[in-house]
Specification:
1 helix, globular, mainly beta, two-stranded antiparallel sheet, about 220 residues
Length: about 220
């Protein structure tokens, strides 16, 4: 596996956990919201990442799908497919089921909140986590206040650090908007995230170990 592919395995494991927007307070039961991101490596489009959030009264369900292909000359150097369904009650994850194919390597994660713990089974390994767990839930900026987050590809419960990096103007859907920038750091992961002033996730960037830029653009 080349340097870029090796980096993407780790990076996408966190990037692809969950995403969307915080604009949930006005949603009514049965409302569905969708977000579509085009993903680039440097200037080359390599795939998409789609999210669908459904309001279910006291619960919310998030469905995620992502597919990437990184080409070298006329060959597919790296392929990635990810599907994930999460159900939330308030700020706490209630259940999760994800399937991932990372360049031929399969991952499976199933999690369920029961009694006073959250039980996770990942590739036949089981463990118990605290009662209230959050994933890398970009759709809810409250996740930025957490010190640990669940990686929905691998089932790892990662230590994270998040810092506010200031305000700046960025291009989104052919317009220039004011955005708040945050940096998120986990094991082998460094991301830049941008949110609108009303909390909508707008963009993501990360520099690979080989100096290439991975970029999400809202479409």
């Amino acid at each position: 596996m080349n340097e870029t592919a090796t980096f993407l395995v780790g990076l996408l494991a966190c990037v692809l956990c969950s995403a969307g927007t915080v604009a949930l307070a006005s949603a009514t039961v049965g409302d569905t919201q969708e977000w579509n991101f085009t993903v680039y490596l440097d200037d080359s489009e390599i795939g998409f990442h789609r999210f669908q959030l459904t309001d279910m009264g006291e619960r919310r369900e998030v469905q995620t799908e992502a597919q990437f292909r990184v080409k070298f000359l006329f060959f597919n150097a790296y392929r990635y497919a990810h599907e994930n369904t999460e159900r939330w009650v308030g700020d706490c994850l209630e259940r999760i089921e994800s399937r991932t194919d990372a360049n031929g390597e399969p991952y499976s994660v199933v999690g369920l909140r029961a009694e006073d713990e959250f039980f996770v089974s990942a590739n036949e390994t089981e463990k118990a986590l605290p009662d209230c767990v959050m994933t890398f839930a970009y759709w809810d900026p409250r996740f930025l206040t957490q010190s640990r987050l669940l990686n929905t590809q691998t089932g790892e419960y990662l230590k994270v650090s998040v810092d506010f990096a200031g305000q700046e103007q960025i291009a989104v859907q052919d317009a220039t908007v004011a955005a708040n920038r945050y940096t998120l750091t986990a094991e082998d992961i460094d991301l830049d995230l941008w949110y609108s002033e009303d909390g909508k996730w707008l963009a993501l960037e990360s520099i690979t170990a080989g100096g290439r830029k991975l970029r999400y653009e809202l479409t």
